Fold this protein.
Amino acid sequence: MVNKLAMPKSWNADTKPHKFCPGCGHGIVLKILGEIIDEVGIQNRLVFGVDIGCSLLAWDFFNVDTVQTHHGRTTPVMVGIKRANPDLLCIAYMGDGGGYAIGSQHLVNSAFRNEKIMAIVVNNCNYGMTGGQMAPTTLPGQKTETSPYGRDPETMGSPTLGPEMVAAIAPAGAYVARGSIGNVRQLKRFLKKAVENQIAGNGFSFVEVMSSCPTNWRTNAKQTWDYVEKEMSKYFKTGELRTPDEKREA
Amino acid sequence: MTDKAIQGEKRVFMTGNEALAWAALAAGADIMYGYPITPQNEVMHYWTRMAPKYGKKFLQTEDELSAGFTTIGGILAGKRAFSATAGPGTTLFQEPISMAEMMRIPLVMAIMQRGGPSTATVIYSQQEVNMVTYGGNGEGWRVVYSTATHQELYDYMIKSFNTAWTYRFPTFVLADGYQAKMREPFVMYDPEERGIKMVETKPFVGLPGVPGVDRPAAHLRNTYSVEEELYEALMPIQQEYEAMIDQVVEWEEENVDDAEVIILSHGVVSRAAKAAKNRLREKGYKVGYFRPITLRPFPEKQLQRVAAKCSNFLLIESAIGQFARLVKEALFNVPVSRLETIYKPGVGFTAEELVEKIEGAC
């Protein structure tokens, strides 16, 4: 029996329990997002875009207008909606593959153009839906299905630092942060500020969330938390990288 | 600022790309999303010059993938949105077009064919027929108008918005670099003054009220979990596509009743075919002319009816059999005495060469 009282109002109770694996970080991120939707009161003007990959499982997660798109293409669909109807609030929700690999050109150029949308990249260091392949964010030495001997930065590159990249290129008014499912209070603060930045129309709003994938990591609960908090945090630092009041050269 | 871009009827002399931009304005298009590629660029050039005067918008994206997906976004927001592209751009556009087919998004595009495969030429061909009719990982749920004149570019660009928003299938004006870049006279008009009512657009997302409270949330997807679920979703789309065919299909035919040979062609090539037919008729040769205007859906019954009278065909196209494949499929199981073909990939046709060819064969 699902306790409906514990759910954010904006959740779609009919599709709970949700479809993510046990121990997946998506549930935590979407819980926080649901609370923010309720608190800020944006359920009636929000368009939630979900990518391909595990994020697509959220296509009916909220009682919010939701569009499931293609791999990496959620950002441009949200940009298109926002440009056509600036009264709507648009959140592009994707994984690290969608954000930093197949859709990286859209993320980079939307940031350059300071599109007045919000993008969330849930970073779990691998491609979860397709069975645990190497992702842009896979850690050095990390074993995946396509880096079975561990990621070798010499030949396979180093983990993509998404927020750092976006923070480096976005014009004034942008909001950029990295949070973690290991610190939900901080993560909620970041996500809420990003939502508010879009409402204010200041500029591009971007939050990466360090998340978990016990299914493909083949980790138990303790190992999963350790991986997020001890291993991932060596490469990915939480914090705000850009706030809208920061001055930038045009 | 005036509401109407075009008032009354106006005879003009301009390029095809300019005609398309004016037609989009006349049709009440709200926003264009695009990425530069020759020979389509001037559609954007004219749109960006005129759009602000009429409260219209434009976004230049980072590539054609983005142009396609932002256009889809604009349509989801309820706007009469469109794009235009060519060649390798059409290749990239297959991904968003495929999503539009699956989700019944009324995407409107002008395709100005250039040489292929790959980068080829920026000038001309009819080599994007396969891609525009049946491209993507789908079933060809598209409407494709292959135009021949600037008047048709203007007429069918306006019509494309109404076809797309009536039937909810991606709709294309399929032209080419020759049509894009040459100037010729045609008549611009306000569609409403001619009794053409523009079909109202409707947002897919952002309707009034709180989703789940005042109205159901829009949960739009293109992904399905199991085979049968997909099958259940697809078959009604196929049925709706088939049910639409008789209302949408268009073709042009002349002198087919007593013809001894019929020239089959589409697009700008059909101008040479028609001119050749007329000249040969003057000389007493019984030549006919048949041209599909919609390549999807194809005027299959109409071509079969013609083939029952005369099935000695000469098919010409500026590609290696892309149009011929559609014709052969339409004529499957119909007795055909002869189907001769002239394939000139990336090269145009003149009436003179066709007159010489047919005269020489008679």
Observations:
- The longest helix of chain B spans residues 227-248.
- Chain B touches chain A at residues 30-31, 33, 57, 59, 61-63, 65-66, 69-79, 81, 95-96, 99, 203-213, 217-223 (CB under 8 Å).
- Chain B has twelve helices and 15 strands.
